[in-house]
Automatic annotation (TrEMBL), chain A:
Domain called FAD-binding PCMH-type: residue spans: 1-223
Record lineage: Bacteria, Pseudomonadati, Pseudomonadota, Alphaproteobacteria, Sphingomonadales
Protein name: Xanthine dehydrogenase family protein subunit M
Gene3D superfamilies associated with the record: 3.30.465.10, CO dehydrogenase flavoprotein, C-terminal domain, Uridine Diphospho-n-acetylenolpyruvylglucosamine Reductase, domain 2
One protein family per Pfam: FAD_binding_5
UniProt cross-references to InterPro entries, sorted A to Z: CO_DH_flav_C (IPR005107), CO_DH_flav_C_dom_sf (IPR036683), Diverse_Substr_Oxidored (IPR051312), FAD-bd_PCMH (IPR016166), FAD-bd_PCMH-like_sf (IPR036318), FAD-bd_PCMH_sub1 (IPR016167), FAD-bd_PCMH_sub2 (IPR016169), Mopterin_DH_FAD-bd (IPR002346)
Xref: PROSITE patterns: FAD_PCMH
UniProtKB/TrEMBL annotation, chain B:
Residue ranges of every copy of the Aldehyde oxidase/xanthine dehydrogenase a/b hammerhead domain listed in the record: 32-138
Stretches of the chain forming a coiled coil according to its record: none
Single GO MF descriptor: oxidoreductase activity
The protein's name in its UniProt record: Xanthine dehydrogenase family protein molybdopterin-binding subunit
InterPro entries from the UniProt entry: Ald_Oxase/Xan_DH_a/b, Ald_Oxase/Xan_DH_a/b_sf, Ald_Oxase/xanthine_DH-like, AldOxase/xan_DH_MoCoBD1, AldOxase/xan_DH_MoCoBD2, AldOxase/xan_DH_Mopterin-bd_sf, PaoC-like
The organism of origin for this protein: Stakelama marina
Length: 316, 728
């Protein structure tokens, strides 16, 4: 870990300005991901701006019947919130499928969106990685990539986004609210928040330098059965091989987003029209253009089978 | 005390303390966080500095140059040690690869430097500033690709009885299959850690090590100092599973760092470093051939195993159990060893039998299916009471059949549907599987010293280690039984090279051997006590703090101040008899019919392993090993990057071991057994038996549930999900 300076911000706009004016500065909230990466010197911030005291830890109703989730709401509190459990069950279930109780107690809503890939080559500074060191190459392509991406990959990077929460947020059409260093705010649809790797896998979101997440809002509840099925190599405390966030209504309509497949939560709205035709009809569209390796090709049938189970049980 | 004749009746047979389920006497120290583990010993020596090890980023080649200038100038740094300034170092026959590289690099993450600084954080930060230039050489990292180049793995690598080839060829039922097991990491809770301090040319090492005397030996050889100048202490370990049988880089580089900088140095391996810097259980490719008559009696059995290691290393003895487990007149085993430039392969819990039985017991399941016989019955039909390779040599005791029958009954094996993929419970496919368990019961000479103080407290000192197994408690129970005092009147001191040399902990020999050493010392002390009290030593009874003989008695405290030391020395009983432990594993699994996710629902082990000294800690050993076997069956695999030559998944987020949610209710049944040939304790060992066979029992249950046979461990869902029947 490199030495760094530290300050506590007192407002979101001030936090944004503080990060923008200091080269190499980063926000720190729960620290559940950033601190590990700093110890390995995969992240080497020169300055940390602590956003824990900004009062962004409330969950409040929005005027249009949705919920505004403060950026600093802890994963544990969000999963346990009665309104979330009642109206956005897929989100609560996704949160509880992630990490461990201890990590969820510290991890924040905004931090969860910003967590970095778990690609093992990203985690080993001795190995090439275009995300960690742009231009150094990708050791995962041609290496151990069993749990890496099959959708939206590039020849620079096949990393996945590790979040469960974000997959549910994507299915729910959440919106990310931010404040920029100049004090202006904006709302970014979650579909546009994360990026595909392309030629710049080191740039993972569409946030501008210093831009600070203040909240994530959920639109009014859409009803339906809420399911989050995370398939992994052990029963708990593992990243998804694949996951499916599903909201299925009695009339056969619904929402589907997938985790463990791409550099961002994967959702193809057009595929949702096929829910009534079964899992294969959905995945034929949602997973069209998949680019698999011999190690991770199993994800295609696994998504279809997992979705098949969800749709069968939702109809039952 | 020589032990060369089967034990007769002795004071242990009273079983007033021995054989009783007993809480760990070191439990309160552990639950209150006051048990002193190596890395936390802030108090033992002043002015400790912190060492941080830098590992090689190539698997094979040479160090061209090391630039340490920036590291040395970094805040808090006391010194940097590399091969260039480490001074003359020796080699130890306990290690295949050197613990400090230079100029030659033998494997990835082999230590190339240690940075010593005032704090851990300063040492770690400075370590990142060391720039090493390498000359990379091509290496061999792929066992399957090197299989053809493998050679006979030393003397004793092969065995043959009868005419296997023709018996197999002519057998009406045969099975010929290949199985693979991956490289595995011990993944114990406590990483390797040491503190080293010099006083002149005398070294004190506080470390985490299973074999104190081997540690003394190795440190002496590595540092080129006499053994008597080395003092090693390791009173508590947070697990080892074989990875701490030998000192590792933490110990040697703490000592070298301390010698170069003049400060006591404390070093832990970071978790990501444990996987490539230390040892691992090597991967195997195994071919098993079984031939029989239609009645299921084996006429030919062959087991070949290929593994790899660095030049000069050894094989994984995956054929061990096949020499002993089942009858059959015509048999062969062979071990083949390839050169691989991966980190050093070595012992991990039940080396040989653990991966060997994963293959053999899956083969037996397939063989039973070919015969149309029940898997339990086919094993019983092939039981033997003599060494199948040497029928003149009987087993000292062998109750495999009892384990299988009793286990099957307790588990409800008769409810198993032999037709695969035919039991549904909602979205789950349910299956049952079983396997035999076999593990040798080796013994090692072991010494102890026992004394009595004026309060009647009996103190045992031996360099035996407690690696989480419960050694403190069974040694205390042994002394309590022998000296006729309650357990709370016994003090047990372990893990210090100033104490008499014990068996140490490994190969599941520790419990039987070390308590037998305590037995020997107690017998010597009893004679001294009786003599001092004027009692006949032959007939003296030690009970309730009193010694009685011939109608006279005296309190044990009258013998205060007496002390005795002795060593159990094992004779040739282990050559006259095959001494081994046996078990039967029974498992029920559920497999998600859609996704292939697997959940173990029940596990049961029935074990015959000699006298069980402490049923509570013995059960803990068996269920811990069953848990480890579940990891081996379902998830554990060090993934080799065959381009760079290293284990990619080198942390506990990526190298999966079971979590609580993976492990269901576990039941353990111990069959009544006492083995008079094993030692005066009549015990054997259970620390490794529990992992033997359980992986195959799980694999066989998955097959029974799904109808898909996966012969490449671990059985992850990607290997079979596409072959599972489609669900409506």
């Amino acid at each position: 870990m490199r030495a760094f300076s530290f300050e506590r911000a007192t407002s979101p706009a001030e936090a944004a300005a503080a990060v923008a004016r200091t080269p190499g500065a980063k926000f720190i909230a729960g620290g559940t991901n950033l601190l590990d990466l700093m110890k390995l010197e995969i992240e080497t911030p020169t300055h940390l701006v602590d956003v824990n005291d900004l009062g962004l830890d409330k969950i409040t109703p929005t005027d249009d019947g949705g919920l505004r989730i403060g950026a600093l709401v802890r994963n544990t509190d969000l999963a346990a919130d009665n309104r979330v459990r009642r109206d956005y069950g897929v989100l609560s279930r996704a949160l509880l499928a992630g990490a461990s109780g201890q990590l969820r107690n510290k991890a924040t809503t905004a931090g969860n969106l910003l967590q970095r890939t778990r690609c093992p080559y990203f985690y080993d500074p001795a190995m090439p990685c275009n995300k960690r060191k742009p231009g150094s190459g990708c050791a995962a392509i041609g290496g151990f990539n069993r749990n890496l991406a099959i959708m939206g990959v590039s020849d620079k990077c096949i990393a996945t986004h590790p979040s469960d929460m974000a997959v549910a947020m994507r299915a729910l059409d959440a919106t990310v609210e931010t404040v920029k260093p100049d004090g202006k705010t904006r709302a970014i649809p979650i579909a546009d928040f994360h990026r595909l790797p392309g030629d710049t896998p080191q740039i993972e979101t569409n946030l501008q330098p210093g831009e600070c997440i203040t909240a994530v809002t959920l639109p009014r509840p859409i009803g339906g059965k809420h399911v989050y099925h995370k398939v992994r190599d052990r029963a708990s405390y593992a990243f998804a091989l694949i996951s499916v966030a599903a909201v299925v209504r009695d009339d056969g309509t619904g929402r589907l987003a997938f985790g463990g497949l791409a550099h961002k939560p994967w959702r193809v709205e057009a595929a949702e029209a096929k829910i009534g035709d079964g899992a294969k009809a959905v995945t034929d569209i949602a997973l069209a253009g998949a680019k698999t390796t011999p190690q991770n090709a199993f994800k295609l049938p696994l998504v279809e089978r997992t979705l098949g189970g969800i749709l069968t049980e939702a109809r039952a | 005390m020589k032990f060369d004749k089967p034990a007769g009746t002795n004071p242990i047979d009273r079983k007033m303390v021995i054989g009783k389920a007993t809480d760990r006497i070191d439990g309160p120290l552990k639950t209150t966080g006051t048990a002193p583990y190596a890395y936390e010993r802030h108090d033992v020596v002043a002015n400790q500095a912190y060492g941080y090890i830098v590992g090689s980023t190539i698997a094979k080649g040479q160090i061209a140059s090391i630039d340490t200038a920036d590291a040395k100038a970094s805040p808090g740094v006391v010194g940097v040690v590399t091969w260039e300034n480490a001074g003359k170092l020796g080699t130890s026959h306990w290690h295949t690869a050197r613990l400090l590289a230079g100029p030659k690099v033998e494997h990835y993450d082999q230590a190339v430097a240690i940075v010593v600084a005032d704090s851990f954080e300063e040492a770690r930060a400075a370590a990142k500033l060391i720039r090493v230039q390498y000359k990379r050489a091509d290496g061999q990292f792929d066992l399957a690709a090197q299989k053809a180049s493998a050679t006979k793995a030393g003397d004793g690598a092969d065995s043959a009885v009868g005419d296997f080839a023709s018996a197999f060829a002519s057998a009406p039922i045969h099975l010929d299959q290949q199985y693979t097991t991956p490289d595995q990491s011990h993944a114990m809770m406590e990483p390797h850690a040491s503190i080293a301090a010099w006083d002149g040319d005398k070294l004190t090492l506080w470390t985490s090590n299973q074999m104190i005397n081997w540690a003394v030996d190795a440190m002496s050889d590595l540092l080129l100092i006499p053994k008597e100048n080395v003092h090693v202490m390791s009173p508590f370990l947070g697990g080892g599973f074989g990875s701490k049988l030998w000192v590792r880089a933490d110990a040697m580089l703490a000592a070298v760092g301390a010698r170069v900088t003049g400060r006591p140095v404390r070093v832990t391996l970071t978790r990501p470093m444990v996987f490539n810097n230390t040892t691992h259980r090597p991967a195997t490719i195994q071919r098993i051939r079984i031939g029989s008559d239609k009645d299921g009696k084996i006429t030919a059995i062959g087991h070949e195993s290929w593994s790899g290691d660095l030049p000069g290393g050894g094989p994984e003895g995956a054929t061990n159990q096949t020499k002993k487990l089942y009858a059959g007149a015509n048999r062969m085993t062979a071990l083949r060893l390839a050169v691989l430039d991966l980190p050093e392969g070595n012992a991990m819990r039940a080396p040989g039998e653990a991966p060997g039985l994963m293959a053999l017991e899956m083969a037996m399941d397939e063989f039973a299916e070919k015969l149309g016989m029940d898997p339990v019955e086919v094993r019983i039909v092939n039981d033997t009471q003599v060494d199948p390779e040497n029928p003149n040599r009987p087993f000292s005791q062998r109750n495999l059949v009892g384990c299988l029958r009793k286990g099957a009954e307790a588990f409800g094996w008769n409810k198993r549907n032999p037709k695969p993929a035919s039991v549904r419970d909602g979205r789950w496919l349910v299956g049952m599987g079983m396997a035999s368990a076999y593990r040798g019961a080796p013994v090692m000479n072991s010494a102890a010293r026992v004394d009595i103080d004026r309060n009647g407290v009996v103190t045992v000192a031996t360099d035996m280690t407690d690696i989480g197994t419960g050694s403190y408690t069974i040694i205390g129970q042994t002394a309590a039984e022998m000296m006729g005092v309650p357990l709370d009147k016994v003090v047990v001191k372990l893990g210090d090279s100033s104490f008499p040399v014990s068996s140490g902990s490994g190969g599941q020999w520790g419990a039987n051997s070390s308590t037998a050493g305590v037995y020997a010392a107690c017998m010597a002390l009893r004679e001294k006590v009786a003599a001092k009290l004027g009692l006949d030593p032959k007939s003296a009874v030690f009970e309730n703090g009193t010694v009685s003989a011939g109608g006279k008695s005296a309190p044990l405290t009258d013998a205060a101040g007496l002390s005795a030391e002795d060593r159990i020395e094992f004779g040739d009983l282990s050559r006259k008899y095959v001494q081994a432990t046996f078990g039967g594993h029974f498992v029920e699994v559920a497999v998600d019919a859609y996704t292939g996710e697997m959940r173990i629902r029940r596990m049961l082990a029935a074990c015959a392993a000699g006298r069980i000294l402490n049923p509570k800690s013995a059960r803990s050993q068996v269920i811990g090993a069953m848990t480890m076997g579940a990891g081996a069956a379902l998830m554990e695999e060090l993934v080799v990057d065959k381009r760079f030559g290293y284990f990619v998944n080198h942390d506990l987020a990526e190298y999966h071991v079971p979590v609580h949610a993976d492990i269901p209710h576990q039941e353990v049944i111990f069959l009544e057994e006492e083995d008079p040939t094993s030692s005066p304790m009549k015990a054997k060992g259970v620390g490794e038996l529990g992992i033997c066979g359980v992986g195959a029992a799980i694999a066989n249950a998955i097959y029974n549930a799904t109808g898909v046979r996966v012969r490449e461990y671990p059985i992850t869902l990607d290997k079979f999900v596409e072959q599972m029947p489609r669900v409506a």
